[in-house]
Write a structure and sequence with these properties.
By secondary structure, the protein is an alpha/beta fold. It has one domain: Rossmann fold. The protein contains 6 helices and 10 strands, in the order ββββββααβαβαβαβα. The strands form 2 sheets. A 7-stranded mixed beta sheet has the order 4-1-7-6-8-9-10, with helices on both faces. Helix 4 links the parallel strand 8 and strand 9. Helix 2 packs across helix 6. The termini are far apart. The relative contact order is 0.16.
């Protein structure tokens, strides 16, 4: 599981199609998308864990939910240029494979002109002190607000592949919901909404990470959420 940090650079030509090239090495890549000349561009930042980076279970490159989401939005006339900063095993408190927490990833991903910042996760924070989780989630949301004062915040809580997540994961969910509400963010709860429940084909053999089909499913869930946030911006 790797770090992904990417700005989808905009190439102005007359065809409204998205072509994604994504690297999961810890380097900055600049994928290109092609858009209609008159179409406005929405800048979006995404902060996440291995559900966003992709793993050997699925979600590499163009199969990632992020890439699929930008393609879906483009087909609906919404052109997105995105910075995606994600790291396997990372959370708001727990450091990831390369030593980052979500606040570090926020600092890398968010730009002053972003219309929307998306946080996704993280089940990796289970077992941490909830006061610590609350404080660092607050700091991440506050940092996003300070870097991009006009942006909206969309906070997606940790998913769980069964209908009976452990109590400490539910506490992570509840803590993030409280902090998102305090920050004026929209909070989405994949646990209550039943993402992945009774859908074994969406989770890999490790029992944790989404398959390519799981990433396609997440894109189906997340693309309308992002579209709605961008439609509501002032």
């Amino acid at each position: 599981m790797q770090v992904t940090v990417s700005r989808l650079a905009t190439v102005l030509i007359s065809v409204a199609v998205v072509t994604g090239i994504v690297s999961h090495r810890p380097a900055c890549t600049r994928p290109y998308q092609t858009v209609a000349r008159e179409t406005p561009i929405d800048h979006v930042a995404v902060v996440g864990d291995s559900y966003t980076t992709g793993t050997d279970q699925g979600g590499w490159g163009s199969n990632a939910w992020t890439s699929r989401t930008w393609s879906t939005l483009a087909s609906q006339g919404v052109q997105v240029a995105a910075n995606v900063a994600s790291e396997g095993r990372a959370g708001y408190v727990v450091r990831g494979d390369h030593g980052s927490i979500f606040e570090d990833l926020t600092n890398r991903a968010v730009q002053p002109d972003d219309a929307l910042v998306v946080f996704f996760g993280s089940r990796n924070d289970h077992g941490v002190a909830y006061t610590r989780l609350a404080a660092l989630a607050h700091d991440s949301f506050d940092l996003a607000r300070r870097i991009a004062p006009s942006s909206k915040l969309l906070v997606i809580g940790p998913p769980w592949p069964t209908a009976d997540p452990p109590s400490d994961v539910l506490q992570v969910r509840d803590t993030l919901s409280d902090q998102a509400h305090d920050a004026g963010a929209t909070f989405i709860d994949p646990i209550s909404d039943g993402w992945f429940v009774d859908r074994p084909e969406l989770i890999g053999p490790d029992g944790v990470h989404p398959t390519d089909a799981g990433h396609a499913y997440m894109a189906e869930k997340i693309a309308p959420l992002i579209h709605a946030q961008l439609s509501r911006r002032s």
